[in-house]
Amino acid sequence: MTPTNELSTRSRIALVIYGMTNAVLFGIGMALVLSIESLSQHLWMGIPIVVIASAILAWPISLLVVPRLRKPLWRRRQLAKAGAPVGTPEERRELTVKE
Fold first, then answer.
1. What DSSP state is assigned to residue 4?
2. What is the pLDDT of residues 52-82, one digit of tens each?
3. Following DSSP, what letter does each residue of 39-92 receive, concatenated?
4. Nearest to 54 by CA among 46, 66, 64
5. What is the dihedral angle through the alpha carbons of 12, 13, 14, 17, rounded to the nearest 10 degrees?
6. 99 vs 91: CA distance, rounded Å
7. Which distant-in-sequence residues (6+ apart) come within 8 Å of 67 by Cβ?
8. FRET partner for 33 with CA separation of 20 to 30 A, picked from 7, 8, 24, 62?
């Protein structure tokens, strides 16, 4: 794979989060379809809608989650670079070397 074709770190993390997000959205949708009387009468149409909607909505939601997952480590690296106290001295050296 050439460097121009590689995925960004954000996209890679989003791909990992996508499966979990899709499962949660699917579970919520199925619980709603099966528990609400007016929706459960039309299961033949409700279930495919839930499957498609969860698959489509999971990607943008996972992209929204990724920056929140990366921020704590980024902030710790910035503090370590500035010389502010972050964890143990060994941890501070390790964080500054990785950049």
1. G
2. 999 999 999 999 998 888 777 777 777 777 7
3. HHTTHHHHHHHHHHHHHHHHHHHHHHHHHHHHHHHHHHHHHHHHT---S-HHHH
4. 46
5. 130
6. 13
7. 10
8. 62
Cβ atoms 33, 47 nearer than 8 A: yes
Exposure class string for 16-33: b at 16+ Cβ within 10 A, else e: ebbeebbeebbeebeeeb
CB atoms within 10 A of CB 50: 22
Distance CA 32, CA 91 (A): 46
Q: Token match 């954000």: residue? A: 10
CA distance linking residue 26 with residue 20, whole number of Å: 10
